[in-house]
Write a structure and sequence with these properties.
alpha/beta; 5-stranded parallel sheet; Rossmann fold; 434 Repressor (Amino-terminal Domain)
């Protein structure tokens, strides 16, 4: 779902006249009544992007159907091709990997995870691993790989994990996002992603009714940083998690599954944060992320646009112990030194220095 919405150009005049038709003599009076800033109201009325929750609320205040007036991106627009002029970084170290072309390894985990999602009923799973072990990148890969065009993948990269990937709805929830940390915000986000009508009020009872009545195709909700949701979000209480469990197990005919990312088992995580919902008991499979296999690590290293020597490859494997983040760091430093025409081994010293903040990955 889009994080912001704007009024479609053909509806701007209608929206501009709506305040007076609804008893608001000025833009300021509308801002005062809704509690939004005047700049937000002005942006909304003039067709500039505003936060989607604000967009929905302002539309309701003005008696407008937000789905009708919102600008919609053309659905036929093809995915943007990957850059071919050297602008894309082959080694990514500061952010999750969300383009499948740059994701390597986890073959064993992917086979099990997709096996649980390609048959009916869909089954729930948990991805467990240390911080910076690649949990978020794996969630993105699950979401994107089956529908990414072949020309945007590596040669021979497997993508046919699901028999009918076009039938699946994937909903990625980042619980570090403040908008996902309120119950209403998260419920609206899920409903918008499902492309169903958002009820008023959007509370748990109405949410349950809408989802159970409208979810008829395979849907996977990917919950990232769930420990943040349990530790910092009081509105996401046991009743909230109970409802999600009920949807997955009883209300959606086996069409809904959850995949969550966590540094510890779901049951332990819930216990350690004071939660007792049976939601955390439904994860029958856990993928424990460790280092890549040597074969997978060598494939990542070989993706460099400038080939490394055998000696450099062996040194990178030894120092990284095949952890993907550490591999990315060392490969990045070696590639940079080659691009700059440097012939010494200073890149190794720099690579080891860059690895230090993540040394805990090397602890057994």
């Amino acid at each position: 779902m889009a994080r912001s919405l704007r009024v479609a150009p053909e509806y701007i005049e209608k929206v501009k006249s709506a305040p007076q038709l609804n008893g608001y003599p000025s833009q300021q009076s509308l801002a005062t009544d809704t509690g939004f800033s005047l700049s937000t109201v002005k942006s909304f009325l003039s067709g500039k992007p505003v936060d989607y929750l604000n967009f929905v609320e302002l539309s309701k205040k003005l008696g407008l159907e937000w789905q009708d007036i919102a600008y919609k991106e053309p659905e036929t627009q093809p995915p943007k091709p990957q850059p071919t002029n050297g602008e894309a970084s082959p080694f990514i170290t500061g952010a999750p990997i969300n383009q499948p072309r740059y994701f390597f390894g986890r073959e064993k985990e992917l086979k099990r995870l997709f096996n649980l999602l390609k048959r009916h009923p869909l089954q729930n799973s948990a991805i467990i691993g240390k911080k910076r072990s690649g949990k978020t990148s794996l969630l993105h890969y699950l979401k994107n790989i089956s529908t990414t065009p072949a020309e945007q993948l590596r040669p021979e990269q497997k993508s046919n994990w699901l028999p009918h990937p076009e039938n699946y709805c994937w909903i990625f929830v980042d619980l570090q996002d403040a908008r996902m940390q309120s119950r209403e915000g998260l419920l609206k986000y899920i409903l918008e992603s499902l492309k169903v009508q958002i009820p008023t009020p959007c509370d748990l009872d109405h949410f349950m009714n809408v989802v159970s009545n409208n979810l008829h195709s395979p849907t996977v909700i990917l919950l990232d940083e769930i420990s943040v949701g349990l530790q910092r979000c009081p509105e996401l209480d046991d009743r909230f998690w109970d409802c999600l469990r009920s949807l997955a197990t009883n209300q959606t005919g086996g069409n809904l599954a959850f995949v969550l990312a966590t540094p510890e088992s779901p049951i332990d995580m819930a216990h350690n944060t004071g939660h007792s919902s049976p939601f955390f008991n439904i994860f029958g499979y856990t993928a424990n992320l460790g280092a890549l296999t040597e074969k997978e690590a060598r494939e990542l290293i070989a993706s460099s646009p400038i080939a490394f020597t055998d000696e450099d490859v062996e040194w990178i494997l030894t120092q990284s112990r095949c952890w993907p983040l550490l591999l990315q760091i060392l490969c990045r430093e070696r590639l940079f030194s080659l691009e700059e025409g440097e012939n010494d081994d200073n890149w190794r010293e720099e690579g080891l220095r860059q690895m230090k903040p993540f040394a805990d990955l090397l602890d057994s």
